């Protein structure tokens, strides 16, 4: 998404000179005029900077198809989705004709990828094999994040400015409902443990829980101390939502059973996307200003283990649960867009 806070952050980043920042917790990333390939990283190591197609315009959400080793990266500024083979670290496709694409969601069991085409207030359906758009359906005002409910076979779309979640039935790829959430909507995630959908309503400072069987809100939880809850990641096993607060650089752990906030931590300025590696209990929080913060997340508790500058405007992050590699798209690294790949195990 792009909010006024994010636009200010991007202007600051454009004026700032790249440098070297030492991270807490013994993690260090060297970023400067080189590609960063020779950087020494304690805790995380740089695996590769994979060149991406297109211009140095803004990149946004990612989605990993673990089964087929493909990472889909939304190139918002170019209106394309880049497709990267995570084994060979090569671009194997580039889907064009998606103006203002924000969210992207791979659904391997359907052989499809869904993308929010924000400038048209639509969601595009992409065939994962041919990489062609096979259908489009209307969304709400400013569609952003997406999530898939595999039980009811529906995609839920965050309509950020419309204050709604749009529901798309995947059997027909048609819009079948709209849920009014009452304020600007951030990320939307499916909770496999409760079979509910969890959404951040940043316009009301709440996390809402949707029952897909009824297509209605069944719980609303306040987020005290959180200005603009936006990014959401779920630990289904512990029934916890990790919530990034865009307005005041905070991270909350929210108990989805009681609605109680159990932990609060600081993160980088204007946090955006979160990624949770359940096997390692590591939560990655990316921010518009470039920092990547790493937490040991054990259910209701959060312990910060590293923090530092991961790359210019590295505001989205994804993680491969099998290899534990971390993916950070950078719009402009030495005059080109790249996908920065990192992994635990540095020196």
Summarize the structure in short.
With 347 residues, the protein is mainly β.
Which descriptors apply to this entry?
347 residues; mainly beta; Methylamine Dehydrogenase, Chain H; four-stranded antiparallel beta sheet; 30 strands
Task: Describe what you observe in this structure.
- This protein is mostly beta strands and 347 residues long.
- The chain has two domains: 1-46 and 223-334, 7 Propeller (Methylamine Dehydrogenase, Chain H); 57-217, Methylamine Dehydrogenase, Chain H.
- It contains one helix and 30 strands.
- It has one helix at 4-15, and strands at residues 20-22, 28-30, 44-51, 62-65, 70-75, 80-85, 90-95, 101-107, 112-117, 122-127, 133-138, 143-149, 154-159, 164-169, 174-180, 185-191, 196-201, 206-211, 216-222, 229-235, 240-245, 250-255, 261-266, 271-277, 282-287, 291-298, 301-309, 318-319, 326-330, 338-344.
- The chain has a four-stranded antiparallel sheet with strand order 3-30-29-28, with no helix packed on it.
- A hairpin with a 4-residue loop joins strand 5 (70-75) and strand 6 (80-85).
- The longest helix is centred in the first third of the chain and has 12 residues, at 4-15.
- It is globular.
- The relative contact order is 0.16.
């Amino acid at each position: 998404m792009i909010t006024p806070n994010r636009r200010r952050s991007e202007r600051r980043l454009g004026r700032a000179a790249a440098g070297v920042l030492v991270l807490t917790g013994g993690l260090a990333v060297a970023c400067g005029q080189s590609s960063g390939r020779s950087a020494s990283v304690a805790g995380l190591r740089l695996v590769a900077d994979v060149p991406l197609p297109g211009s140095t315009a803004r990149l946004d959400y990612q989605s990993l198809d673990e089964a087929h080793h493909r990472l889909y990266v939304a190139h918002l500024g170019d209106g394309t989705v880049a497709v990267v083979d995570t084994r060979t670290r090569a671009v194997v496709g580039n889907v064009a004709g998606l103006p203002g694409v924000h969210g992207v969601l791979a659904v391997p069991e359907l052989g499809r990828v869904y993308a929010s085409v924000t400038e048209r207030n639509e969601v595009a359906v992409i065939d994962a094999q041919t990489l062609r758009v096979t259908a489009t359906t209307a969304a709400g005002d400013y569609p952003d994040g997406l999530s898939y409910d595999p039980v009811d076979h529906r995609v839920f779309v965050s309509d950020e400015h419309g204050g709604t979640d749009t529901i798309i039935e995947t059997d027909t790829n048609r819009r079948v409902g709209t849920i009014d959430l009452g304020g600007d909507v951030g990320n939307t995630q499916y909770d496999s443990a409760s079979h509910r959908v969890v959404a951040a309503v940043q316009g009301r400072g709440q996390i809402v829980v949707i029952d897909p069987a009824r297509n209605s809100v069944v719980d609303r939880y306040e987020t005290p101390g959180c200005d603009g809850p936006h990014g959401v990641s779920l630990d289904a096993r512990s029934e916890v939502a990790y919530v990034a607060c865009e307005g005041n650089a905070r991270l909350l752990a929210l108990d989805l059973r009681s609605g109680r906030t159990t932990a609060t931590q600081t993160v980088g300025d204007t946090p955006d996307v979160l990624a949770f590696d359940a096997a390692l209990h590591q939560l990655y929080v990316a921010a518009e200003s470039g920092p990547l913060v790493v937490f040991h997340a054990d259910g209701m508790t959060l312990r910060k283990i590293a923090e530092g500058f991961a790359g210019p405007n590295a505001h989205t992050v994804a993680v491969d649960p099998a290899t534990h590699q971390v993916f950070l798209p950078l719009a402009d690294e030495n005059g080109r867009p790249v996908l920065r790949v990192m992994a635990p195990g540095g020196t």
